[in-house]
Amino acid sequence: LQYFKSICLVFLIWGSSLYADVIDIAIPQHNSLLPQTKIYLDDKALSLETLISQKCFQPYNKPYINIGASKKTVWLSLELTNKSQMPVRKVLVLSSALLEDIALYNGNNLNQPIYKGVSHISEKHITMYPFFEIELPPQSTYQYYLEIKSNYNPVDFGLWLVQKEHYRIQDRSHQLINLFLIGMVTALMLYSLMLSFYTNDKSYFYYSVYLLMLIYQQMTYLGLTQIYFPVWFIQLDIHLTVIKIGLLIITAALYSIHFLKITQMPFLYRGYKMIIMIALIQMTLLYLPGLYNLNIVIVTGTFFILYNLGAGIYSYHKGNKQARLFILGFGIVFVSYLFIILNALGVTSIMQDFQNILMLGTVFEAFVLSLAFTDRYTILQSEKEKSDLRFLNEFQNRTKIIENEVIKKTAQLNNALASKKLLLKEMQHRAKNNLQIILSIIRLEEDESEDKKTSEKLLTIEHKINAIAETYDLLLITDNMEEIDMKEYIESLLEDVENAYNHHGDAIEIQTDIHAKMPLKESSYVGLIINELVTNSYKYAFKAEGIIKVSLFQKNNHFLLTVEDNGTGFKRQKKESSSFGLRLIHALVYEQLGGVMEKFTNTHTKYIIRFTL
User: Fold this and answer.
1) I need a labelling partner for 233 at 20 to 30 A (CA). Which of 298, 386, 491, 499 fits?
2) DSSP-H helix ranges across 200-322
3) 148 and 189 in a common domain
4) Domain residues for 444?
């Protein structure tokens, strides 16, 4: 009996091993089919017939196949059976959106494989993962072979056999979750972009560009690009893996440089510049078909995320308070990137169970870093309050010093100004005295002269000098030494002329309309002009009585002087050529005042003079 039990046990074990690799598709499969298949990794480009004849396939006991970024071809052998009494239709799903070339061979016809994968994608493709439809008649068994290879992306997948409708429902659910995550990251990207324009902070701008590159890379990784973009773009996109990783590194580095203020730490800044340069070189060279090597790019990415996290910790250690948010946010993404790198190197297949972990980590990171704006405002407000307090104290101290200095300097200036005014008054008084001495000498000469013409010339000279002396009289009685009140000056001047010429008993009236002020030098010129014109009117315009009108108006820097009488006038050309006085007036108007003069001398005499100061 014991011998019989041993024989039964041997036959049972042999029978179990005989049917271990046969998969009954009528029974629901909840786990990966790979432990029930046989596998061969081909690096010699052998044909399927050769593999079968040489019995190359070996049992496989893991739920996922992960050979990383390898040029090897993965061959799978699986035997499917339908022991039910009804035909069974299911789909064979490979859980990777990055597989480029997939061929399914029916063991009964090895010459007509069915092709799937990114390189053979069609416009009708609507799922994230490639799949094959399998239909087995009742009570039948078929042998199938799968050929999987990728030239530009890592090979990592599981194998599932499920109902088509169940797979479609599950796929749509995963698509919605991934689209929701991408939508959140897109919203945070736009938020960062708006913050960059609002705050004029480049770190937010580079972060928004980094998020854009990440969204693009993740849409391909999750299989959304293969669904929602045209075939020509998908075929191009699958070749851009090196460029996409390079752009991620560059934009993340630029963001970190500005957010952590790395330029203030030269040795870290040099490291970031070296990383950016390496990424640019890899994007240029390793993209070429003959030089393509994804593993080198992955190693660069590994070094970058370690360097980036270390830079954040160092920046915080150096007093950058905002670096704590960077460490928290990037720390989560760091773990996600580490899983992706290990997966791409073929170390683990953890990403098969958490394919959208990077998007989840990025959403968390973006939320944390979006708080940086508020955090930065709080830090700046605190620093501003401290700075304002220091400034206020310094301002008060400086104000006291300045007030004391101002009081001291004001006293010195007042003393200097008083001395200057006293000196000017003394100079003006002496100038007036000198002019009065000259006038006295001229008057003595006039009184002693018996020649009428000589007396008249001396009188004319006296009036000219007196016109200048009047300005000094005004300066002595007024505090304004910059401008002369022309009304007071001209009326005083005309009064002297009137006293000198009305002693003959002539009834000559002088009318004035003066509204102007001007500097001392120009007022002397105007006084000489008026003195000469009025004197000429007294001497030549009237026989017995008459009226002389003098007006001066000012509009801003423009002046209008009019001197006229109602006398007899004179012949213009003869008078101008023979009168020294009129030549003096011409010189004063055109050369000294830079003005113009109009003359009317036919029926009466009228001079209109315009000038600008």
Assistant:
1) 298
2) 202-222, 225-228, 231-237, 241-259, 266-285, 294-317
3) no
4) 400-481
* Nearest residue to 122 via CA among 9, 194, 230: 230
Q: Is residue 502 classed exposed, middle or buried when 0-12, 13-18 and 19+ CB atoms within 10 A define those classes?
A: middle
Question: Do 308 and 330 form a contact (C-beta atoms < 8 A)?
Answer: yes
Q: Which residues pair with 513 in a beta bridge?
A: 551
**For 375, phi and psi rounded to 5 degrees?**
-60, -45
Q: What Å distances lie between residue 525 and 276, 510, 518, 559, CA to CA?
A: 78, 20, 11, 13
The answer to whether position 386 is within a domain reads: no
Give dist(CA 514, CA 488) in Å, integer. 9
* Residue 151 DSSP one-character state: S
Select from 145, 139, 134, 44 the least CA-distant residue to 93: 134
Strand partners, 42: 73
**Helix/strand/coil (H, E, C) string of 91-116?**
EEEECCCCCCEEEEEECCEEEEEEEE
Same domain assignment for residues 192 and 152: no
Between CA 402 and CA 404, with CA 403 as vertex, the angle to 5 degrees is: 90
Q: How many structural domains are present in the chain?
A: 4
The answer on 155 and 117 residing in a single domain is yes
**Two tokens at 285?**
């060279």
CA 192 to CA 334: how far, in whole Å? Answer: 20
Task: Note whether 96 and 129 are within 8 A (CB).
Answer: yes
The pLDDT, as a whole number, for residue 343 is 85
Residue 6 inside a domain? The answer is no
pLDDT means per 10 residues, the chain with 613 residues, are: 40 37 84 91 92 93 91 94 92 93 92 93 91 93 94 92 93 93 90 85 89 92 92 92 93 92 92 95 87 90 93 90 83 87 84 81 78 66 72 82 84 69 58 68 69 71 70 61 81 82 71 90 87 86 85 93 87 54 87 91 89 91
pLDDT computed for residue 543 by the predictor: 76
CA distances to 276, 282, 309, 476, 497 from 246, rounded to whole Å, are 8, 7, 18, 87, 98
Q: Which of 534, 477, 524 is closest to 500 using CA atoms?
A: 534
Query: Containing H/E element for 612?
Result: strand 606-612
How remote is the C-alpha of 464 from its chain's centroid?
71
